[in-house]
Amino acid sequence: MTKKARRPFRFWQELKRRGVPRVIAMYAATAFIVIEASDIIFPRLGLADWTVTLMIILLIVGFPVAFVLSWIFDITPQGVVKTEPIAKGSTSEQEDRDGRRKLRVSDIVIGILLMVVIVLIYPKIFNEGKSRIPREIKGKISIAVMPFKNMTGDTIYSLWQEGMQNLLITSLSNSKELSVRQFETMSSAIASNSDANYASFTPSMISQLAQKLEANTVISGNLHKSGSKIRMTANIMNAETEEVYRSYELDGHTEDDFFSLADSLSMQIRNFLEIRNIKKDYYFDSGDIFTQSAEAYKLYIQGLNCHSRLDYSCGAEYYNKAIQADSNFVSAMLKLAFCYGDMRQSELSKLWAYKAYKRIDQVPLDMQILVHAVKASADKNPFEQLEQCRLYLMQYPHSTYMHYMAGWVCFNLEYWQQAIEEFELSLELLKKLDSHPWSWTYILLGRAYQFEGLYKKAEKTYEAGRELWPEQKTTFDYWQAVCVVSQGDSARAKYYLNEIRNLAEKNGWAEANLYLWYAGIYNWAESFEKAEEYYRKAMLLRPGNERLLYEFSEFLISHDINVDEGMELIAPLVEKYPQNALYLFTYGEGLYKMGKYQEAREVLQDSWDLKPYYDDKHLTLIRKIDDLLDKA
Q1: Which of 210, 235, 330, 449 could pair with 144 in a Cys bridge, judged by C-beta atoms 3.0 to 4.6 Å apart?
Q2: What are the phi and psi torsion angles at 169 (to 5°)?
Q3: Against a cut of 0.90, is the pTM above it?
């Protein structure tokens, strides 16, 4: 290697001999730690922002000074001494080759400093793009309430600048959903600002102040006066983006009104923020949930949870409580209409659908379409309901709920292929959102596949549903059994029947109930001989069971197996329960098959009026009887 080529290497060896790299590493690490500590500590000490900037400048200026001093001097056991030049003929590289360097104290210090730097810099690298303001503090929205600006031109109202701030802080602090910065904390933070004149505070200054207090939401406001009217305005703002979430205006006439205005404003703000905090844990794609009451909103969510578990009584209870908390809660009314419909209480279902319809002008356009769709459902008008679904999906094509509703309507109309398309779209969108709120999508899609002869797809759908809702395993096993029995797969049918038996034994079912399930499976699979066998086994064990009497009679009449026997079984039930739509339909169908058309028509109409939803088979039979009566 030539002399010229060795110069950079020799210079590096000289830097190492004088300990310059160690000093620079220690200086850089220490400087970084000092800057981070200053950024945290100085604002807490009430120091201005420029003090942190000054510290950074001083550390930058000190860097070349440290470099020069480390070149000239060495720290030895004898103290600070000037570094001697390397003796001619002696090279440090030779020493490096011949012996191992001992571990020095400076090496340990550098190692510790580097570990501290890594700890500090890690979150900056891996949390890049995330908000610097914590979204929640123990699940709460963090709030800073600013003093209200006195814009009245009258100094007598200056007292209310901090007065309104204090009233709002006190009121909002009672919420379990909110973490409110207290009055003393706010006063200290504002006092540390170089300009504590409230009127001069800009949104940017307010945002910076809130971020120092680690608050993600800011409430600010103004006091105005015109003649005898006093107006209070308030904004709820995102502390980081300065986006205004909501604005409020309240009017009064005297200072005495300020307390009632503060109460009203705090209640509105509290409801808005509590609802906003709850919303982030739930996904709604069929319009927003329109209520100003946080209590109503919480009850509504509880109702949804019950409803999604197919616990309709529980869902109805919470929806009713939500409406008691907010008498104009249209979203809860719509859900309640479906809840009562699923419980076959058609009058209550229609009642709530129409109550929502009366308030249609109080909700925005997307919700108005939903109200029309639910009313059409209550009116048993599937074509109008489907039209409203299409109208909604034209504007919001990614609505999983409306795709489900469209699929449900098509299923009721026995448009199997259209139902499949809508259910598949709904599930595709739900998978992207990693949201699975409703098991009926899987059940109805599986059944639509079966009606189209797509058994393998039906099986996969039921299996997916069973994994998502293990508590509804029996229901999915039931339809899986129907699917495999329909294909004549006796081995796999035996597996699912055994699964149902195991669960029945675990839950202490009566043997008759198990036979009733088996009969239903074979009935749906159109294996009528086997179905009749199990129905009769169940009848021997529980001859007076009303559910068994109904299902067996429906089986005998619907499939023309023994209409007379079926009528003997269903007649006492109709006499005992004249308002039961299912019993009336089976009885009316039996009258039709016995040739008693006029009597059948009257019974079937009564049944139709009592049913909550459209039934294609029912309407088709009524029209067939009408044609026969017209020809008679």
Answers
A1: 210
A2: -60, -45
A3: no
